[in-house]
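Sharing a chain and its predicted structure for anyone who wants a worked example. Both blocks are below, sequence first, tokens second.
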Amino acid sequence: MGRATRMIGVGAIVLLLGGAGYLTADAYDVVPGPLTLAPIPAPPAPFPTAPGAVPAPALTPVLPALPADAPVPAVDHVRALLDDLVADPRLGPSVGAVVADRLTGDVLAEHDPATPHTPASTAKLVTAVAALSAVGPDRTFATRVVHGRNGQIVLVGGGDMMLAAGAGDPTKVNGRAGLADLARETARELALAGTTTVTLGVDDTLFVGPALSPSWDPSHLANGFTAPVTSLAVDIGALRPDVEYPRRQADPSMAAAGEFATALTAAGVTVTGPPTRATAPAGALQLGVVRSAPMGELVDYFLDTSDNVITEVVGRLVAIDAGLPGSFDGATQAILARAQRLGVDTTGARLVDASGLGDGSALPARTLLGLLRLITDPRHPELRPIAVGLPIAGLRGTLSDRFVASPARGLVRAKTGSLVGVTSLAGTVVDADGRQLLFVLVADRTPGGGQGAPRVAIDRFVEKLVGCGCS
């Protein structure tokens, strides 16, 4: 046998042995191939199939709709009830009042409906209507940090006076956006740029004019009924969180800047010197941003709590949206103009602020009735949250401690109003026949002695409307 033949034979044996080795490795799944000694897997489960589309079950309303054919109270009976209320000495000599059927809009009884009376906090209804119809319920308001000049960063107020000093809470209105969150975001951006030391400015120029209305009594600030209105603050400028009407910061913007400087330090940024007022450069690079609760929740908040400061903030935001200055004058002008544009009769109406706290505002009962008609009109669904968000008798908001043991409990939704010498209530009521009525009651020259006596008189009248099966 020649050398070549022997080489071919050896090669063949090598290939055969190599092939046998590979097949063995394949069988044991060491190398890829078709062979395997693994057990045969179980058949796969059948591919799931979605059921065919079927009609949804009928929805069952939580509350039944008010019957459209419920009888309307007799006009003579409602007039008699209202005459008795107006004659009640607990209300004093100056009363504007009206009761109307919600479905038809017909006035059932009225007293002095065209004369402007001091509305107190029922004026918040017009601010709420303007805010939701003009600005809209979904708008939020940004508190930003931007690069300033010469190594400064600037905290820019965007109209949020309910910032949290720490982390924001997405479940809250007051405290939705947090300065600690803003500080951490700012610190990250500064670190990327290699910056660890800054000076801090605060720009609160979004709102202009006086922060306190000249129409406000100085005691309102001392008693915690209001605060300086600025474009940023922590917890509405409150000095303590555990009382209903706390004293407020003298300068809420600078107090918020101080809280932000503390948060920056905790986030690893050195802030040299105290914060100072500054103006953010146009087009400045943004370092961080947090956003307030949406406008719809702000409106619900001030209607429920009757908070004067947040109402004034919302009034300024309405003004800015309308292209007017974010001031007391700009807010009142924008608010009344919006109500008039929606068809509300504002003849004789005058506002000195957006909240009704100041001395000099006057609204006819007819104007307040026009607002109630709007918020309960199915043609204005954007305003329905106002009707739903009003305090509820005996259950919620500023009516939670009234009508508690009354048949009117849960059947009255209304905005309260209280000033020295002024007691007012405006809203909706469902009577014993299931008819929904609108009512406005304003007494603005009540006798001395506080709110107790006039409130009792008004509440008893409303209870009689609730119990009125008087068709």
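Comments welcome. The mean pLDDT is 90.
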